[in-house]
């Protein structure tokens, strides 16, 4: 790969990136921890102080006008360069990420492909100019009683974005993950709060992106990666007047704290926080008939325990019909969970929180323990767990809707589609909701028709069959949903629409062609699909 | 017109509309006030209590699924029926609005045309399905290493919306104004908090809309108009768990209070508040040359005093070059303002707030009083006022950026385009920013190029020439902008994009055709423009 790549791979010296530049952390350092052994390892990762945070946000603000004035081709080339640089990190990145997260090598490699593929997808979207949503209402000088002025609309980026990555996807939802990729694609400089659970991974990726910034001739303030010991850095970023939007993936408590901080600013800014979901799966009777219960239970436990259950879309709650077919599903799932071994979770804190969540389910008067697997050999590898609960008991206690992050499943027994609708109406917002039904069975089909409107009001993605743990990076993906799944159901953090979160419309009235943004000029120099008087005209034709 | 219209016009009995039904207010009543005389007049308008508010929001929630499942043609017909019913109110509506607001008859008639035209514009947008933004990523069963599932995305409405109308546009920004029209177009039931400054107008329009709801076979919960004496009704609506979004037009204090309430809910919801703007107008030297100063001053004072200055887009702050041409502009504007008479403002409270704002400008050590007109003959008709201030003094005191709602202008003298950029960088967010320049003058053109990025970051609409007080209802209009102009710069309350504020994306994975929303089905039954694998395919072709 390029010299830039070489410098990035050689550079894991633990220095945070303030406006693209490695600096000595002014507030001490931390060490990465191998969750599989509990051992700390170097290099020490520098922590920034308030002045360094401000240096990064100030540089981001100063870089904004230059960054946002790139052509689509330039922006796309920058995003592809960042993807190439991340690919170019090679084995050093994979080794580091595996050691910092305890995730298997194959998973990290797949996640890297997803991460760079995501950057390249946004490059394509930027090139086509979809998100600019250009509109032109030509002047009507002879209109009575008043002439209409020439009006043209385009979307521009909101300004510097603070990104808080997730622990559970150290590449795809972290430093250069969906939030960063979509904010950069929109034209927003990004200040990443690097995740302390994978700081070396964050810095390696950060250098790859910063090198792409430099190689693209952009001001270095376009990208920073900072670390801090506690919550102060988050508070400082979210309340910084130069930060114009916030993206976060993590816990409900953490996301809500950032939402509250952003809403209390003198000048509030939007927060897109992806937080908490138990991803209800509804099984209707037809899906269990003809031995369907066996295959479904196998697929369920595979999804539940995938990656130690550390997915935002983990199927935490499954609604299973009462009766013998449902019993068969429960029995089979219980046997599989009891045979499953725990794998290393991301951090000691996450493993401890899992233990607390499982204990709460054990202690709950309404639940029954259906199965418990074996703990893994090392530390932080708690045993998978499965519980059952009666539908009424589930509906009666909102605590049973709380996400237990990890491989803990709750099977809710339901007596009818009607009872189910009543239970689902009382559920919180979700990232996903899944329906297993036999579309050829009239009873199932009627129930599905009745339940879908309820699920639509509660989730960002509805699956028919399958399991929610795969989140395709695609134009039609929604990874979002009503609170507490996210802070704002109108956005998605994965897929082609993700960059729209960071754009706002601006209208130009009577503006001479030379002063208009190129997207709105006569002759359509960027060959964009534009809406003329409300009607879509394909690129280059107006 | 239709019988429905007849029943609406006959119905101004003062009863609020709870789920479309006139009810006796359980919390007393209020009387409308004629601001031109200070006289109260009937009928008494019923105020609702907490139970009636909850009845309205509960009905809105119950109506949601039926309302949102309308076809585009049905929704469009409903919107057009509402428009027809409002037109059908005839002179009774105009008489009542004139008496309640003190606005001239011609203005009310024009505003009515704008209001019904707006409903009809949204009907057209709904018919075309623009806002659904349908996307399809077909399955790739043979993709390695994993097949891709079929993914389809459409936008659905967020749920019941609470609308707080403005006092200054009793039709176009009130009961069936832009917020209500766009929320209904999106498929959201609406609960209007009727404005106490024009309660009879609100009820007449409300009955016209409620009659359209009934005539369209929709559940009556789709539309309610409620009144309350103080802030309790606003608090009750914004914190009601059934309300999923809020739209507001009014004061900065009022909007911020609603934002804070919505953000503090257990389940926060988006607020679109349009609040406060001084709409900076930047005059560059070329625009004043060749006697340009005279025409510009004439147009400025006409815009400043239009409708007693009671426009969100009133040009409150104008930047005028130092030097003789600028002096000529100031002198001419001062003479015109000194000759202008005050007209009746909307309410005694608004007139009093105007007086306080003018006094604060008078008392400010940095400003000079340039002119004061005559007060109008009746009450609540304060004299227009004009002040000047030096650029440095303006930049030094943020209080000088505060909106004085009404015909009070502040002329800021600037020494150069560079000094101007520094001043503008310190301004708050605005609805509009206007540039007057000679596009053929190299100095002006260079200055415009330098200033436009600064203005873009601060405003939702940029004008070249003209005055911001006309807000065209068009596809390319933005009536929005960074805080405090609005609560969220990503939205607009006027124009084709306004309904997008009330929509959220939902993705369907592996869903059988019969269970998909029609917008996403094979064969494109609604003939929508849809994005297939990211590429736009015109309606009916996929």
TrEMBL record, chains A, B:
InterPro entries: Ald_DH/histidinol_DH, Ald_DH_C, Ald_DH_N, Aldehyde_DH_dom, Aldehyde_DH_Superfamily, ALDH_KGSADH. The keyword S-adenosyl-L-methionine does not apply. Coiled coil: none annotated. Residues 30-339 form the Aldehyde dehydrogenase domain. Keywords: Oxidoreductase. Gene3D superfamilies: Aldehyde Dehydrogenase, Chain A, domain 1 (3.40.605.10), Aldehyde Dehydrogenase, Chain A, domain 2 (3.40.309.10). This is Aldehyde dehydrogenase (NADP(+)). It comes from Nocardiopsis changdeensis.
